[in-house]
Inverse folding.
């Protein structure tokens, strides 16, 4: 049996998790899969740093060339994270004929064309299951199992930190700031949580998922992005009264050759499968023309779930007779800058006769129909009262135009949240 030599780029918690799995399950892999691995070199910033798993000092190096230019290393596993130098290191390894296994959604989303082109030109493999949703095999399903389908849409909870925050806000009626502080204390949110709470992490992942689902490259710059920092406990509570649960959703749809890709806070009906996905779990809800509706659910982050997906890709790379690249045929030429859905609108309005009809009239002039409305609480010291509207399906552009027409002396917008009920 051939032993395949591999190299690591980085060895933080995830890298240590991969090393641990290779040590503890190496014999089982040899027996079950017929593959054996030998680690040639591990690139780290500090060779003296104490790590979560004991790694022989002889494997550690602070010289990238010990991995990238080593002719005996056939597969490079990248755990560095971030855009650079990870992207340039992966491109360099691929051009040298070394296959790449990575969980780096940021590097992939921002350098997709360069990385895929380097793999195609050299014939090396590119494996990235762990880049989206950790241990959930959503990428393999789209690339392999669903190839007999035309995927028409997908919606996903693909960031565990925001799902934990919104789940707590929903179950406890807690404020965003308090739950975020708890998440940081528990290690579920970074000290600087911007990438998660402002939707950047989910946007990188959606760029990858929508590119694979629709077979056209969807650049991350074309993904509409809105985070959860403006969400209040009032928004969550009002949604409950309408039978809705709030999530940070990644939504991608393809209609008549036009692709929409967006990340934003979204209400879903309480009966929707995504509504029950709580805490730090992830889920992706896919609709295909042949398979119909299906949902993939599991742990989308964490050292060991991510390491599990990485080692699975490592085995696949080692056994491949020919490496397959994603079936992406061209760039997405037509990206939607508008979309249609139900909208939740919360505003403050003067508490006097005729105001409601004037507000509804401005919506009607833009073709927006109000499905239901509730008044929250009593008027404040300025003589204003809080109103919450739920519209029928309407375009984003029409909603914005209607709100822009409303006289600020009569009513002012507080928040708009989209509702996906399909």
């Amino acid at each position: 049996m051939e032993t395949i030599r591999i190299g690591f780029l980085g060895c933080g918690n995830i890298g240590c998790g991969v090393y641990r799995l290779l040590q503890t399950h190496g014999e089982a892999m040899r027996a079950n899969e017929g593959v054996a691995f030998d680690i040639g070199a591990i690139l780290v910033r500090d060779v003296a740093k104490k790590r979560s798993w004991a790694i022989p000092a002889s494997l550690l190096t602070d010289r990238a060339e010990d991995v990238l230019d080593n002719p005996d290393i056939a597969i490079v596993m990248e755990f560095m994270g971030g855009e650079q130098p990870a992207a340039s290191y992966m491109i360099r390894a691929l051009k040298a004929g070394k296959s790449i296994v990575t969980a780096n959604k940021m590097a992939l989303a921002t350098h997709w064309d360069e990385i895929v082109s380097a793999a195609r030109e050299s014939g090396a493999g590119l494996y990235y299951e762990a880049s989206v949703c950790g241990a959930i095999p959503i990428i393999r399903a789209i690339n392999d199992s669903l190839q007999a389908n035309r995927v028409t849409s997908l919606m996903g909870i693909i960031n565990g930190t925001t799902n934990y925050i919104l789940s707590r806000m929903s179950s406890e009626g807690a404020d965003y700031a308090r739950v975020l502080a708890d998440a940081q204390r528990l290690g579920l949110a970074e000290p600087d949580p911007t990438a998660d709470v402002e939707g950047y992490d989910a946007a990188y992942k959606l760029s990858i998922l929508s590119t694979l689902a629709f077979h056209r490259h969807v650049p991350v710059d074309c993904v509409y992005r809105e985070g959860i920092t403006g969400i209040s406990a009032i928004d969550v509570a009002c949604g409950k009264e309408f039978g809705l649960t709030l999530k940070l959703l990644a939504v991608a749809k393809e209609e008549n050759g036009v692709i929409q890709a967006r990340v934003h806070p979204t209400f879903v009906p309480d009966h929707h499968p995504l509504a029950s996905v709580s805490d730090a779990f992830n889920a992706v809800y896919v609709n295909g023309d042949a398979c119909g509706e299906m949902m993939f659910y599991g742990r989308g982050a964490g050292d060991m779930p991510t390491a599990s997906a990485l080692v699975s890709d490592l085995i696949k790379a080692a056994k491949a007779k020919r490496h397959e690249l994603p079936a992406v045929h061209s760039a997405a030429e037509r990206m939607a800058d508008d979309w249609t859905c139900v909208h939740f609108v919360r505003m403050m309005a003067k508490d006097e006769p005729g105001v409601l009809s004037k507000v509804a009239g401005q919506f009607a002039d833009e073709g927006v129909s109000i499905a239901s409305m509730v008044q929250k609480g009593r008027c404040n010291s300025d003589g204003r009262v809080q109103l919450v509207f739920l519209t029928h399906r309407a375009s984003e552009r029409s909603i914005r135009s209607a709100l822009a027409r409303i006289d600020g002396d009569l009513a002012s917008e507080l928040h708009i949240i989209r509702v996906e009920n399909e």
User: Anything to note?
Assistant: DSSP finds 14 helices and 19 strands in the chain.
